[in-house]
Write a structure and sequence with these properties.
11 helices; disordered N terminus; mainly alpha
């Protein structure tokens, strides 16, 4: 007696599946089109030369040639994941990551500018850094690889990968990053000065200054 209902139900399910398949295809197409818009060559030009007409200085003046910063307060950006760089530039325009210099310049950039610079930096080869403190590097290694169980701090490697390469579209590359910059960002997450990552804010609030510095020093030596 229930057989007459089978065909309509099956037909409805088929229609729903086809609709979902179409939506998925449209989503992938949109993502591919968005990625295709990025122009690394234009990103390189803006990164290396800036745009005087819009009061945008050369990114290289602070972040170094090809993203290899030599100023310890400014992050190395070479090899950083495209999606992460774009997200950070976008965040600088809002309340979640306010930084006087970067907020000013990010607001002067168009969406295409940000995508182009991000695409350029993603393709650059990062130069290696080095740990400096023999007294704390082992503590940093222990925290990075195993976390701090008693404080419910997870292993950094779980998100940023064992070698610090991160995971594209999810977590940033941190290998070789300047100790001073990495420590400063952990402190900013803890104090709320930087609000664009709830997980990092939660983790940083559980870490001491010494633990942060130890992790930052260990990370600087990762390749």
């Amino acid at each position: 007696m229930n057989e007459p209902c089978v065909l309509p139900v099956a037909k409805s399910l088929l229609v729903a599946m086809l609709a979902m398949s179409s939506l998925t295809a449209q989503t992938y197409a949109a993502e591919e089109n968005a990625a295709a818009k990025a122009d690394p060559a234009k990103g390189e030009a803006l990164y290396a030369n800036g745009d005087a007409g819009r009061n945008i200085p050369a990114c290289a003046s602070c972040h170094g040639a090809a993203g290899n910063s030599t100023i310890v307060a400014n992050p190395k950006l070479a090899g950083q994941h495209e999606a992460y760089v774009y997200k950070q530039l976008s965040n600088f325009k809002g309340p979640d990551r306010n930084q006087a210099i970067m907020t000013t310049y990010a607001k002067a950039m168009t969406d295409d500018d940000m995508k182009n610079v991000a695409a350029y930096l993603d393709k650059q080869a990062p130069k290696a850094g080095a740990a400096k403190s023999k007294d704390t590097v082992e503590l940093g290694k222990k925290i990075y690889r195993g976390g701090i169980a008693e404080k419910n701090v997870p292993a950094c490697a779980g998100c940023h990968s064992p070698n610090g390469a991160g995971i594209p579209n999810q977590y940033p590359r941190i290998a070789g990053q300047h100790q001073d910059y990495a420590t400063a960002q952990l402190i900013n997450f803890r104090t709320g000065a930087r609000k664009n990552s709830v997980p990092m804010a939660t983790i940083a609030k559980r870490m001491s200054d010494d633990e942060m510095k130890a992790v930052a020093d260990y990370v600087a030596g990762l390749k």
